[in-house]
Amino acid sequence: xPSKDTRYIRLKCLDDLKQLLKIRGCWExxxxxxxxxxxxxxxxxxxxxxxxxxxLHHPFFNPGLSKSSPCTDMSSTGGQNLVVSQQxxxxxxxxxxxxxxxxxxxxxxxxxxxxxxxxxTSSSKDDLEISKGTLLGDHYEVEGFLGEGRFGIVTKCRxxxxxxxxxxxxxxxxxxxxxxxxxxxxxxxxLRGLDADRWNIVKWNDFFVEGxxxxxxxxxxxxxxxxxxxxxxxRVLPIGAxxxxxxxxxxxxxxxxxxxMVHADLKPRNIMVVDRYECPIKxxxxxxxxxxxxxxxxxxxxxxxVGYRAPEVMIGxxxxxxxxxxxxxxxxxxLATGFPFYPGRNxxxxxxxxxxxxxxxxxxxxxxxxxTDNYFINDNxxxxxWTFKTERQFQDETxxxxxxxxxIRLKCLDDLxxxxxxxxxxxxxxxxxxxxxxQxxxxxxxxxxxxxxxLHHPFFNPGGQNLVVSQQxxxxxxxxxxxxxTPIMITLAFFFFFFFVCPIWFFSHQNxxxxxxKNTKWIYFAKWIIMALPYWSI
Length: 538
Description:
Layout: H1 16-24, H2 31-41, H3 52-56, H4 63-67, H5 79-84, H6 91-109, E1 135-136, E2 140-149, E3 152-159, E4 165-171, H7 175-191, H8 196-199, E5 204-210, E6 213-219, E7 223-224, H9 225-231, H10 239-258, E8 261-262, E9 271-273, E10 283-285, E11 292-293, H11 311-314, H12 322-337, H13 347-358, H14 363-367, H15 372-375, E12 376-381, E13 384-388, H16 391-398, H17 415-420, H18 427-440, H19 451-455, H20 464-469, H21 487-509, H22 518-536
Antiparallel strand pairs: 1-2, 2-3, 3-4, 4-6, 5-6, 7-9, 8-11, 9-10, 12-13
Helix pairs in contact: 10-12, 12-18, 21-22
């Protein structure tokens, strides 16, 4: 297996870490002490490595030093409080923390809610205060608010130069959220040279920095599929509309998969209806905050939203593009019934609903999960290595009380076909639709249908493909031309894009982001190259 450099940070020597910390703009008074501690921790000779007791008495933890740093959590606490927080916890508490992190991650970074409500713009002092009429990026005037979340807000803006309306997502100045935004920008830059209409993905125009916030500029779309369904009173969509939506989303996933990309947060709120009055319906995939190359996935990565995550994500197993197909299957059921299929508040709830309806994931899938023992007991009972924990067992361990929040309760997945018969669909299309859903919701990700197989499924014949593709204007002669047809051309394209076009465009358009000295600009250039390295593997 060829070696790959997957580092985000690449230094010539460990002393360069000081310069890197300066870029972050914090710890200026304790950088030397901090780096000296790191160097002693990372001594190559284990006999020369610092011991835990020596760490506790290191000058870095001196209360006086910590109070002088405006960018550390120690600014409000002394070294003693920091040490007390190191007291050991029980195994039970450790598992609870894993579950808590797993269930909250999607809320922390959920994006673009697109609801017709005024956004409450009160936030920390470092974040922008935005109201109607605020000018962003010199010539984008805020006309209204499209949504708000943990990440920040989405605004409807008018370009005062062209009178064009756009959607601008304003990211809050919080380290984790900013880091997520930087990764999203890398993904969007990779996708921006492609035909967004053919690929059924949102068109990204640009980004700029306003104050301390990163602003992402997108084309303005009508409303989310979630809002579209809500405006219809959660009535089921006609079979023709379902066919169109699923085909377009499978088209988007197929193209992302050709680049080795995982969207990782497919749900109705992240699917935009281009124009609610257009028929047939046209949709686009948005929000690439969780998107990543499949080659960079690490077991235990928590992505997506509770209720739409694939089983392999919930148990902390290694995943790939198949998790998007699971999410698409749940979206398909929601379009056909009007309600979420597995609407749990916690991953335990969702796994419980899945097991009650579809059965338990195979042992070889559960064996690979880092968090499997949070939800299952390894007892080799009744021919299975794993047994799902009862609600009482899970509550005793975590304090979480499980609740059944489903509007649709099925004894088995086959009952879904009976449910669909009451939706005035032809017998043939209903049977084909159900067979497609079963393949999308396969518990074993290796058995799950792929996007390209979806596009050729009998459910979309006859005429389904022409119906959907004809909606999509293209600036290219053939969508196959948007992807290089040989490995050599792909390599050259990525090299040219990441290491030449992106940095030059970044420096020429984002001067406000780099109003520092020349050396710092070159450091940002180096950082850009380093951030791009993991994406080279795709």
